[in-house]
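hey so i finally got around to running the thing on that chain from the lab meeting. sorry it took forever, my laptop kept dying and i had to restart like 3 times. anyway pasting the input first so we r on the same page abt which one it is
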Amino acid sequence: MTAASELLVDAFGRIHDVVHSTVDGLSTEQLAVRLDADANSIAWLIWHLTRVQDDHIADVADREQRWTAGGWVEEFGLPFDADALGYGQSSAEVGELAGVTAEQLLNYFDEVHEYTLGYLRALSDRDLDRVVDDAWDPPVTLAVRLVSVISDDLQHAGQAAYAKGIVQRRG
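ok and heres what got predicted. didnt touch it at all, straight out
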């Protein structure tokens, strides 16, 4: 592994740690709590950050997402398109994750995490300069895309951890 690859593995490992410390021990009901009528639940935040990571890593690796290849779309049984990531979805759709368990969330997250680490460990420094999206100006390189996923995932994991604290204080 290169130094850059090791750094990326460490960053994604931090996401893993926050996700696990947030979700571990929560009931299905606690995962579904919404701090107000339109707030995202912990379950939604964890599902969304995992879907984003799954989608983006599969795209840059030119592989099928774990969501579909691993049977998670059937396991979760959500009533929206299999390619849904959480972007632009309604408050009612957020509520559809109300029955998801901690075990489901963590098992799906862990599969995506291991898939991500396998991909990252095989990267060379030259790979990071590869343009993965030329729809932007400037075009997005692999390095920029990976940092974007890390940033997005850590923000949502932090939101979920914050919500957990409130949920637990409320009893």
